[in-house]
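Example record for the data management plan.
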Amino acid sequence: MNEILDKIGIKSLNPMQLAVGKEITSTQKDVVILSPTGTGKTLAYMLPLQEQLDRDDINVQMLVIVPGRELALQSHEVLQSLKCGLRSMACYGGRATMDEHRKMHEVNPQVVFATPGRLLDHLEKGNILCDSVQVVVIDEFDKCLEMGFAREMSAILGFVDDNCRRVLLSATDMDDIPRFVNMGRTVKLNFIPEDELTNDRVESYFVRSQEKDKLGTLALLLSDIGNTPTPNTQHPSAIVFLNYRDSIERTSEYLKANGFCHVVFHGGLDQKQREQALHQFSNGSVQIMVCTDLAARGLDIPKIGNVIHYHLPLSQQEYIHRVGRTARWDASGRTFFLLGPEENMPEFIDLDPEEYQVQSEVAKPVLPQMVTLYIGKGKKDKISKGDIVGFLCKIGGLKSAEIGKIDVYDRYCYAAINRKSLRAVLKNTAGTKIKGMKTIVEATHPQPLP
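Corresponding structural encoding:
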């Protein structure tokens, strides 16, 4: 266990993770884990459960049900980062089931992270057999139910043995745990404070807009955040929540016209668009994400300094999950409520935020230090992160310190590099080869040149 923690750079586990590890290791009971967002629930279940799986058994031994593809991919990447000898893959909609089935024959996964509908599809077709499944994990089970997956989850559990262990995780409490996951042998570990909606490392403010259209006020606030981050805020990044997809496009056009480098994230984007937006935001090459509540859960981006409610949350749960994007682990953060002339704080938010005074003019936005490159080769071409670093250093002329986060997908890669070096890298790599293969190297959008 200590070796694994060293690999991922964690010195010690928090009380919730220790309690979960003890319960999973010392008993065979089903476990319900309730803990605020940003407290490390994924590691809490993954560390003890991975020790109980057989590396020599090539069959699927653990199923992890998640509400969305981002969490499926993210959880898969967390397990791989542990380098514990287990094979895994993520399954989700938006691509052919047959393609995933072919990949299963290549990978022989022992752990499958999947959305409910896609997992049930594989089970019904016999692509995944449950003879060796020891445990079913349902991450964000309340969100799965809220999204209408009760039938699918019930059907999935019908494929596994009655004695198969269940582990459920959520950032919000529920009065009743659904019967199909409560086997009468459940222990509930509740780490959600009764009198605290958000942690005390989040500073709360409201910003009053004189106009019903709050776009001008949003621009002033983002200008403040980007140009004058406070000492308590460890990162100037901001995530802006809106309730409607159409409003996101309108807001994006306004921010673009005013020079703000940003990305959008909502359910109307295809898989590649969402992956690109998340990569740009998480690697710091874009510091503003404008999104729906789709981004309020399942995204583990540790350095979000500010959460802005352009549209007020419609429920207490939405509010909790939105604010949970900031102040993750031991970081601090801020949350801002944009209030129009006739808007007031929702009654379900028991806060007394202080007023935040924005500047009277929008300053020229400061561009992020990093930019993101798209490289048109990936895992299927036998390309690794090491290959990308070597290519960017030897051909692109970069130093390793100028290269940031790299994500390698099946057919392409994203790599963050220093913005000042972008022109030179594009010039140096134009028409060149990586591992003997010609490839495309280009800056992803939005990427204003220095």
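Summary line stored alongside the record: The chain has three domains: 2-190, 202-355, 370-443.
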